[in-house]
Structure formats: C-alpha cells, structure tokens
Amino acid sequence: MIRFEQTFMNFLLQHQERHNRTYHFLILMDAMISAANHIQHYYLTGALKGNLGLAGDINVQGEDVMRMDQIAQEITIHYLKASGRVIHAISEESDEIILLNPDGRYFVYFDPLDGSSNIPHGLPVGFLFGIAKRNLEGPEDGHLRAGRDYIAAGMFVIPTGTFTLGLKDAGTWRFHIDETMTFVRPTRMTLPAETKTWELSFNASNRRTYAERVQEWIEENESKYAFRYLGALAGDFHRILSNGGMFMYPAIVNHPNPKKNRPEGKLRLMYEGAVVAFMCREAGGAAVNEAGIPILEIQPEKHHQRTALYVGSKGLVEDIAKILREKR
Ligand code: AFP
Predict the structure, then answer these.
(1) Which of 107, 159, 200, 206 is 20 to 30 A removed from 24 (C-alpha atoms)?
(2) Where residue 17 falls among pLDDT bands split at 50, 70, 90?
(3) What distance in angstroms lies between residue 231's CA and the mean position of ligand 1's atoms?
(4) Per-residue pLDDT tens for 206-225?
(5) Cα(153)–Cα(176) distance, rounded to whole angstroms?
(6) Burial state string for 67-105 with b = 16 or more CB within 10 A and e = fewer than 16
(7) What is the rounded CA–CA span in Å between residue 245 and residue 249?
(8) What pTM was estimated for this model as a whole?
(9) HEC profile for the chain?
(10) What's the gap in Å between 134 CA and the centre of ligand 1?
(11) Which mutation among 249, 261, 310 tests ligand 1's pocket best, with the greatest number of atoms within 8 A of CB?
(12) Cis peptide before 263 (omega within 30 of 0)
C-alpha cells in the first residue's frame, strides 16, 4: 500500500500532473468536501436539534423524505453552485435535472444522504457521488453518462469521517478526517486476494424473494464467508473494499405480494450502482447487474433508473455473473 503524509488537496495536485486532472476538478472536490463536512456537522447534532425525523414530504422515488435528506440536499446544491464548475446535477432528492452553472464543465450525480433507515438512530449513512466531464469540444453529448465515462466517483461515510475516492485509471483511495476537518493520509485501496476476510452483504430478509438461481448460489456459498449488513450502501461497500467479498442487492422477483416485486432492482444506477462499481473497478474488483452485464457499461435512459447490483471481489462477482447470464 502507498501512503502519503499530506493533505487531500496536495494529493490531488500530485495526481493532476500524472493524470491530467485540472484545477477545475480541485475546485469541485473542494466543494464536495465542504458539503460533506457541513452535512456531517448537521448529522452529528441532529438528535439534539430535532433533525433526525421525517420532513413530511414524499420524494420522487415515492419514499418519505427525512429532514436530514432536505438539509443535505440544500447544502450540496449550495456548494456545487458556488463552485461554478457544475453545469447540471442529478440528485436522488430532485425529480428534475438541477441546472447550476451554464459554463460549468462537470456533471455531478449524487445522493446526499443514502441509507435513510439509519437516520433516526444517527447511525452511518452515505453521501455518494459520480462525476463526468461535459464535452467541451463539439456538440454536447448529454448528461446521462454510463459509469465507464465517469472521471471520478466517491463516498463519504457520515458521520465516521471517512472518504473514499476513485479516480479514473488512478486507483481508489481512502482518506480519514483530522481534527481540522481535513481529509488526510490517502491509502490506496486494493481488494484483498486472500479469501479469509471476505464477507457477503445483502438484506437477508429478502432472500426468498430473489430469483431461484440467486437463492441457490447463496445457499452454496454463504457458509464460506462472514455475513454483514448495515443497510446503507456506503457503509456496506466500505467494508467490502477493505475486507473483500461481495455486496448484493438482487432483483426482487418472488415476493409473496407480486406488487412488491422489483424486477429492475432497488438501487439507483447513476448515483449508487455506478458510483460503487467505479470505485470497485479502480480497486481491482467488478460489478454486474441482474443480467450479468457490467454495471459500468449500462447506458442510463433516465436519471433515476434502478438496477440490481452485485459488486466486490472479481472472483465472486464473476462466479455469480456466469449464473446470471445463463438463460433459464
Ligand atoms: P434508503 O436511503 O431508501 O434507505 O435506501 C438505502 C439504499 O438505497 C442503500 O443505501 C442500501 O444498501 C439499501 O437501499 C438498503 O435497502 P434495504 O433497506 O431494502 O435493505
């Protein structure tokens, strides 16, 4: 593992030269970090200030909006706009594309507070984001980018003070916050090849609703690995990146109440699935959907498109992908 004793900005500057990162990207990252720190502050004081409850609205996904979802959304939009670098943003909390700076050069796809069931308890949630670059030469080619076209993707696990960032062709790095709220000590993340620490992570209460072949795969494999599940993708994926194994949120196709089936999956492609798939690829792993297609290859057709997700160590993901690709 490579370690740097330097601040986050110095780290990026060093990588800028090697990987053609621009000054504009640094400004955008500064905005993301400021937003995350600000959200974390509200989250830490949320129980005392009464901010960990429901807001009383329903979001575009038909889910109850929490007060913290609204706060995190407002904070993120504020910083993205102030950065002057983002043309359009897509957020879990907004039905419409958010138009920010006409001259901005990036698209940002984000979920400012993912893992709502943990909010009332003040337990870990995630701030997930993917970044793509606008086409600066020639005609604009739209903001709906597949994960393979992201230039970076990252997640803050709030309020644990950890930040993980994947940079295109430059690895996935984990930072920790210090007393001055600076993210320091980047450590390059590589999924462990050794299977001893591998974990499986999925919502076990859903297992009988998965496709039969997925249920069979779980039965054959579960006793080989430890099982862990937090219910917030950023936290669960954080563990997989460190320990190896696989996080999965399969399609729900066998629910006793067919209205509750989710054949297209639950997680959102642009700001959940593709974000962790990108970081995973840069750490040596893989990610596929319910058809066994690489998540990073899926061209989104709409902003809030959902996907099933299998992400983690290549050996496990490729094993289940083979089964998912078999026609039955
Ligand atoms: P919410 O933000 O709606 O709770 O969803 C969180 C999430 O998208 C992802 O972070 C979790 O991995 C997954 O859903 C948890 O879903 P279950 O509660 O169905 O297990």
Answers:
(1) 159
(2) low
(3) 5
(4) 999 999 999 999 999 999 99
(5) 17
(6) bbbbbbbebbbebbbebebbbbbbbbbeeeebebbeebb
(7) 14
(8) 0.93
(9) CCECCCEHHHHHHHHHHHHCCCHHHHHHHHHHHHHHHHHHHHHHCHHHHCCCCEEEEECCCCCEEEHHHHHHHHHHHHHHHHHCCEEEEEECCCCCCEECCCCCCEEEEEEEEECHHHHHHCCCEEEEEEEEECCCCCCCCCCCCCHHHEEEEEEEEECCCEEEEEECCCEEEEEEECCCCCEEEEEEECCCCCHHHCEEECCHHHHHHCCHHHHHHHHHHHHHCEECCCCCHHHHHHHHHHHCEEEEECCECCCCCHHHCECCCCEEHHHHHHHHHHHHHHCCCEEECCCCCEHHHCCCCCCCCEECEEEECHHHHHHHHHHHHCCC
(10) 30
(11) 249
(12) no
